[in-house]
Design brief:
single chain; 241 residues; alpha/beta; 10 helices; 7 strands; 37% helix
């Protein structure tokens, strides 16, 4: 997803970048590999992710502890601020955009992308459609309900409301192939994220009902392989000072 997003963002080479909520450093690495940056800084609140990102990016980027509303950089010190699959988890995204704008030069770019939970993020849509059919009380847990920001109109409104100009959105799609149904299903058993956490909270019979409901409708090829689509909505805007 990251290289496609960066190609669309189209920031010229030789720029100073910040990745807010850099996680393990994958978007930072993509910037280094594809954008010929002058510098890259990752900002991450989680100690575990912070340590992993530092190890993954050693000698290539600086990684600091911080978050979307507390970026540990000086005013007007970078040219581009990006955030991948994070903006919807920030409690006050408007405050985060104001903080991103603070560190940017005039004409700098803010870009972000989030999963299309209500549409073509098919891995999760299949799961939640089945789960809510069998347990309507699960509906408020689903990301599509929880994260109303994850729509192009909502993202555009957020960026425009922050005073950014030249605001644009686009869909970024990648195929998500699985060797078979178990390859698809196994990550849900790890308990990480809203869907897996909900699943592991259930009894064995309830988990089996969800699994079989999904198995009965997931598009499967003759050799058992499964090909789904993952869509993210990307948004960008320019800071005017």
């Amino acid at each position: 997803m990251a290289p496609l997003f960066l190609a669309w963002l189209n920031v010229p080479p030789g720029r100073r970048w910040v990745d807010v909520g850099c996680g393990t450093g994958s978007l930072c690495a993509a910037i280094l590999d594809h954008c010929a940056p002058a510098s890259v800084v990752g900002v991450e609140p989680s100690k575990g992710f912070l340590e992993t990102a530092r190890a993954n990016l050693v000698g290539r980027a600086h990684v600091h502890q911080g978050n979307g509303t507390a970026i540990p950089l000086e005013d007007v010190s970078v040219d581009a601020v990006v955030s991948g699959l994070v903006l919807n988890f920030i409690p006050d995204p408007a405050a985060a955009l104001a903080e991103m704008a603070r560190v940017l030069v005039a004409g700098g770019t803010i870009g972000a992308y989030v999963w299309d939970y209500t549409g073509k993020m098919e891995v999760m849509r299949l799961f939640w459609d089945a789960a809510v059919e069998l347990d309507p009380a699960a509906a408020p847990i689903a990301e599509g309900v929880r994260f109303s920001l994850c729509r192009p109109d909502a993202l555009a409104d957020l960026f425009a409301g922050a005073g950014l100009e030249s605001v644009e959105t686009t869909a970024v799609d990648i195929p998500t192939p699985f060797a078979n149904f178990e390859d698809y299903w196994q990550p849900f058993l790890g308990g990480q994220g809203p869907g897996p956490a909900y699943l592991v909270s259930l009894g064995e019979d309830a988990r089996a009902r969800i699994r079989e409901r999904i198995r009965g409708r997931i598009p499967t090829q003759s050799d058992g392989a499964i090909s789904l689509m993952a869509r993210a909505w990307a948004v960008r805007g320019v800071v005017v000072k």
